[in-house]
Structures are given as C-alpha cells and as structure tokens.
Design brief:
Elements: E1 3-7, H1 11-23, E2 27-31, H2 34-41, E3 48-52, H3 60-68, E4 75-80, H4 84-92, E5 97-101, H5 105-119, E6 131-133, E7 136-139, E8 144-147, E9 150-151, H6 156-167, H7 175-183, H8 193-204, E10 215-218, E11 222-225
Helix pairs in contact: 1-5, 2-3, 6-7, 6-8
Length: about 230
Amino acid sequence: MNQVLLIDDDVELVGMFREYLEQEGFRVSCAHDGEAGAREALSGRSAIAVLDVMMPHMNGLETLRRIRAHSQLPVLMLTGRGDDTDRILGLELGADDYVTKPCTPRELTARIRAILRRTNAPRGDGEGITISVGKLSMQPAQRRASWDGAALELTSTEFNLLEVLARNAGRPVSKNDLSEQGLGRPMARFDRNIDVHLSSLRHKLGTLADGRSCLQTVYRLGYQLIRD
C-alpha cells in the first residue's frame, strides 16, 4: 500500500509534491482543508498522511486530533521554520515525524519512505515471535502491544521506538540509535522528537511494582526499558 494523502491548503505546493511523488511510484490523493483531510485519512485508503499545520478554518493540529481519535494512520507534519511549539504539540498529539517548510520534494519523499519502511518492514522468520519484558508484550509482525494483558494504543513511531527498547531491555539505547532504528533517520541537532515520543510512551505504559516508570532516562546514554 503506497497511497499518500497530502493535506494542505497551498494548491500549488501540493501539486508540486504530488507530481514528484507520482514520479517516485506513489499514488497520491489530496485535500485542501482539514475537514476533508480528516475524512479522507479515516477512509482507510491511505498508507500515510502529510499534514500542514497552518490551514484556515480547521488547522493541522485539530485535524490531527480528529484523525488520532479514530486511527493510528502514520502522519507526517509540515511545520514552519521556528514553530517549535506547534512541532512539539503535533508530536504530543501523535504525529510520527515532521518536516520543516520550506522543504524539497526529495526531502519530503525520503521522510515518507523512512516512516513507511519502518511501518511495513517485513518480519520474515520472526512472524510468530513475541517480545516480553515484565508486563509488556509485543508481537512485531502483527504490530500489537499490550501491558498486563490490556492493548496499548500506539502510533507507528511509538511502536517502533518501544520495539527497539524492548529488544534491548535492561541496557540503555542512545537517542541517535533510537532515531535511526525507530524513525529511519539520524537525529538532527536540537531534535526533540525522541524525547517527546518517549514522554508519550511513559504515559501509556504501566509502572513497575515500586511505582517507577518502566522507561527510564539514563544520563548521557539515552533511554532504557527496565526489566522487572
């Protein structure tokens, strides 16, 4: 499934992105306002949505809220340069990653491929494998995770990052390794993506017997999923 949904009120920009993506082998659908974009995102026809923050009437953040209320469809946000607040809020609301505008079609396409590569990665002989760490259970082939038997509602990026941590449970994983393995790209300077995603995971995961979070920050080393 390689259908990309572009949600942006800039018709000219969308046209440029669409032409490039189609040349790269993607099928593309477009929406030019948040209402239409949310409806199309929830239709089940797309593999990923590219969503602009700055749109009239219903902006990208509200559109993302509507999508996340019903779907874990991967969402790549388009944010203005220097819009750190919108960028962090978008990640907290469940965006998988962001690209800063202005960006080139090539950069956008590379980021889309990185997200889809991790989301749709073939699992091969590991199809029936379950990863268990304390009360956490993950089935990577089915993209399912649970805590103490209760299903976890995770975005595609949250699942990727949690899988990396679970496979390395008991030892710290650096932010750059998490970015490369979970987001499919090296961590950029001043990039807070990993911190925001891990903060969201902390709220979704349960605690250890002593009340601590099972997801710990290890000073200067990264993050660690604690075995209990």
